[in-house]
Design a protein that fits this description.
By secondary structure, the chain is an all-alpha fold. The chain is 50% helix and 2% strand. Helix 1 (34-46) runs parallel beside helix 6. The model is unreliable at 1-29 (pLDDT under 50).
């Protein structure tokens, strides 16, 4: 881990990640950020696969919310280190989006619901802001090498999710009870949700 956090071009550069999560200046713009880049890739590519039946009522949503929220929190702790000047317009648009979310929640007839989201989907201001923070970090980390790694990771996790959906369609599901998404009418209808909780979300 310490090797990941050091500048590969030097042997004595200080680690970026310090005690209790404090961050120090890396030796170069590219030095020491491998761990954060990997975290962003895991959050983007891995979130759709998270599923924890039996532990949480919203077993298809809360694991995703937890990963996104923790990733966004860690990224905010490292500000402004991953902010880059070429993306200033993009960052500005994201800031306007966050401001719009906050204003919408503030003037909502049910601010608590707008802020935290519904009990089932949990996509309120907190979760949407976390998604925007991760998107901004991904833009800041966008080098050709890391974009390729991200696209490959998304392809792998997408293939895993699709394979799980195909298995559900053919009646094999080690995680969920098939009665949750199979309808006995018209000779039997199966609507595989994979890890998305609903067939429509999976299709999207």
């Amino acid at each position: 881990m310490e090797r990941l956090l050091r500048d590969p071009r030097t042997t004595d550069s200080p680690p970026v990640l310090g005690i209790a999560g404090y961050f120090t200046e890396p030796a170069s713009p590219e030095a020491g950020w491998a761990l954060l880049r990997i975290l962003v890739i895991v959050a983007i590519a891995g979130t759709p696969l998270l599923l924890w039946p039996g532990l949480l009522l919203s077993h298809d949503v809360m694991p995703k919310v937890i990963l996104l929220s923790w990733t966004a929190a860690l990224l905010l702790l490292t500000l402004p280190r991953w902010v880059h000047r070429p993306e200033r317009l993009f960052y500005g648009l994201m800031a306007l989006e966050v401001a719009s979310l906050l204003l919408s929640a503030a003037f909502s007839t049910r601010p608590g619901l707008s802020f935290a989201g519904t009990v089932w989907r949990r996509f309120g201001v907190v979760e949407q802001t976390a998604v925007l923070v991760i998107a901004m970090a991904a833009a800041g980390f966008a080098s050709d090498r890391w974009k390729l790694v991200l696209f490959r990771a998304m392809s792998v996790t997408g293939a895993v999710g699709a394979s799980y959906g195909i298995a559900q369609y053919f009646g094999f599901d080690p995680f969920l009870d098939q009665t949750l998404y199979a309808i006995p009418y018209f000779g039997g209808i199966v609507r595989p949700p994979a890890t998305m909780g609903h067939a429509i979300y999976f299709a999207s």
